[in-house]
């Protein structure tokens, strides 16, 4: 039986080069001088962000919460998909969709809520686009008795109400952004009462709320190191589960928005490859949307972490914070940058990039769902596409690879999108 790890893995000490530090957007000073961060995040998270420790103990309360939400998550062999593709490859997928909100995001929302609660904060505040992150924060806040305030882009608030309902059921207050609650929001609303909003505006509203009051903490869904650290539970569990199968993955595959589910499944193995020589032959493939081609078409340079320009600047592959990707349904892959640690590993050619279009991804998701029963989230569908192509390549070459996929979420709240793209 798979067991829950009792510590998280942090790749920083195992990186082949030191990570370029975050910088202040105004002074370009290093991270430790950035004034706003201690007002936004619990001290424990800021320590984790730059921790030189390879392992960080998971507090008991978080272990309990992970267990209560169904961790460890199942690792499933995709036998029917293998048969359908007539491939000698063995395909395994790690089911992060079994989290109650349907994606891997509670893995970091829970610790962020816990550390805020430990500091006697009263409110957890965040922004959300389609609502995957907002619903994870709403759930985590409710588990630790915190109030939750979510600024949701007005266009999603109106057009994609289901995750908004879920957040409300968990007890969160959900405001369409721009809202009348903050100064930047009110100004935009005055200019245009029907303003559709954007993630950048929603971030500004959340951050302004946290900086402007007592007892508020901000929660962030990806990109920052501590989110990657928390997500390592995925990979640590998967390593044990693959060991139980007596197998070592030849290829590990995940989709990348900010990079948290990719780092989650890959870093425990990639770190071992760098430090101990285990997983020497394992490849790590990160799949993006060709609508936001940071890895396959972007630059490696300092850029703002958020579209609002409030958070630190990070050295990362990016398409520029002003880049507005075409409105694809995989909202989680539209981020303009990519976590610095993954960017560095990409630069060192230890991570392989791929990009697919929405149509390629959604077609792959249909094949996967018919074979395995699980409909992947639109984001996850991009990684599924690579898995199918790789398995077909294995057939052509008569090569029996072991492929491990992070199934970061399910698509049951995205059926509208599937209906539109697949013309159902
Ligand atoms: C948010 C999200 C992503 C993208 O975020 P990462 O930080 O890159 O993992 C991928 N898949 C699902 C299901 C998501 O909800």
TrEMBL record:
<dbReference type="GO" id="GO:0052684">
    <property type="term" value="F:L-serine hydro-lyase (adding indole, L-tryptophan-forming) activity"/>
</dbReference>
<dbReference type="InterPro" id="IPR036052">
    <property type="entry name" value="TrpB-like_PALP_sf"/>
</dbReference>
<dbReference type="GO" id="GO:0030170">
    <property type="term" value="F:pyridoxal phosphate binding"/>
</dbReference>
<keyword id="KW-0663">Pyridoxal phosphate</keyword>
<dbReference type="InterPro" id="IPR023026">
    <property type="entry name" value="Trp_synth_beta/beta-like"/>
</dbReference>
<feature type="modified residue" description="N6-(pyridoxal phosphate)lysine">
    <location>
        <position position="105"/>
    </location>
</feature>
<comment type="similarity">
    <text>Belongs to the TrpB family.</text>
</comment>
<comment type="pathway">
    <text>Amino-acid biosynthesis; L-tryptophan biosynthesis; L-tryptophan from chorismate: step 5/5.</text>
</comment>
<dbReference type="GO" id="GO:0005737">
    <property type="term" value="C:cytoplasm"/>
</dbReference>
<protein>
    <recommendedName>
        <fullName>Tryptophan synthase beta chain</fullName>
        <ecNumber>4.2.1.20</ecNumber>
    </recommendedName>
</protein>
<comment type="function">
    <text>The beta subunit is responsible for the synthesis of L-tryptophan from indole and L-serine.</text>
</comment>
<dbReference type="InterPro" id="IPR006316">
    <property type="entry name" value="Trp_synth_b-like"/>
</dbReference>
<keyword id="KW-0028">Amino-acid biosynthesis</keyword>
<dbReference type="InterPro" id="IPR001926">
    <property type="entry name" value="TrpB-like_PALP"/>
</dbReference>
<keyword id="KW-0822">Tryptophan biosynthesis</keyword>
<comment type="subunit">
    <text>Tetramer of two alpha and two beta chains.</text>
</comment>
<keyword id="KW-0456">Lyase</keyword>
<dbReference type="GO" id="GO:0004834">
    <property type="term" value="F:tryptophan synthase activity"/>
</dbReference>
<feature type="domain" description="Tryptophan synthase beta chain-like PALP">
    <location>
        <begin position="69"/>
        <end position="409"/>
    </location>
</feature>
<dbReference type="Pfam" id="PF00291">
    <property type="entry name" value="PALP"/>
</dbReference>
<keyword id="KW-0057">Aromatic amino acid biosynthesis</keyword>
